[in-house]
Amino acid sequence: MDPIVELCKKHNVTLIEDAAESLGTTYKGKYTGTFGDYGIFSFNGNKIITTSGGGMLVSNNEERIAKVRFWSTQSRDKARHYQHSELGFNYRMSNVVAGIGRGQLKVLDQRVAKKKYIFEFYKRELGELDGIEFMPIKDWNEPNYWLSCITLSGRVKPIDIMEVLEKENIESRPIWKPMHMQPVFEGYDFIGEGVSEKIFESGVCLPSDTKMTDEDLNRVCQIIKSLWK
Ligand SMILES: Cc1ncc(COP(=O)(O)O)c(C=O)c1O
């Protein structure tokens, strides 16, 4: 984050940090989502904590947050009747959903601990297989381990792992397709040196649900290992 923050400061660019998946992660001891002028988090059903859908915008700028709150609640002017001087949106979080979110916040630490356990389990069982690499963990970051992902550089390809797991009715997926490779953005310019393409082509997201038992994890590992025999 340091170089990005520095670059934005230098050129006076507003920094909006997409921390959708990373709630609970720290970079040099500071939580992700708190480095920029704004941070966003997703509470979609697949995230580390969920409200079934929706998310959260955070900022230290109270004035701007008040404005966003205004827009997200249909831009209602201070009037007895419904009056709108600006276009608004119906993006507010309902009280029921907010209640679920408050409950979920209490289990965030437990979720991170279980996700870390899952990552370490896979790394211990699969880390020595030829050509497998796990997400690098540096001494300056503590991830929330939301999703355990591997990249492959040997004989076994991502599709081999996805297919062998699928035969056992176990879902795994490629790592996300980069935006500039999406058909909808075909023909648009992009800046990059092929890192995201390489990760997309060589990566697999392993089953990482916090409800997984040791037995489940072990089953996934044994099936994957069978490809190296
Ligand atoms: C990095 C990133 N940004 C944005 C989103 C979108 O979040 P939502 O599904 O809440 O719209 C996701 C969802 O997975 C994400 O991983």
From TrEMBL:
Please list the GO biological process terms of this entry: polysaccharide biosynthetic process
Write out the entry's keywords from A to Z: Aminotransferase, Transferase
Q: What EC number(s) has UniProt assigned to this enzyme?
A: 2.6.1.-
Instruction: List GO molecular-function terms, semicolon-separated.
Output: pyridoxal phosphate binding; transaminase activity
Give the matching SUPFAM superfamilies: PLP-dependent transferases
Q: Name one Pfam family in it.
A: DegT_DnrJ_EryC1
User: What is the designated name of this protein?
Assistant: Putative pyridoxal phosphate-dependent aminotransferase EpsN
Specify the enzyme's EC class, one word: transferase
- UniProt xrefs under InterPro entries: DegT/StrS_aminotransferase (IPR000653), PyrdxlP-dep_Trfase (IPR015424), PyrdxlP-dep_Trfase_major (IPR015421), PyrdxlP-dep_Trfase_small (IPR015422)
High-level lineage: unclassified sequences, metagenomes, ecological metagenomes
Q: Extract the Gene3D superfamilies matched here.
A: Aspartate Aminotransferase, domain 1, Type I PLP-dependent aspartate aminotransferase-like (Major domain)
Task: Tell me yes or no: is Transcription among this UniProt entry's keywords.
Answer: no
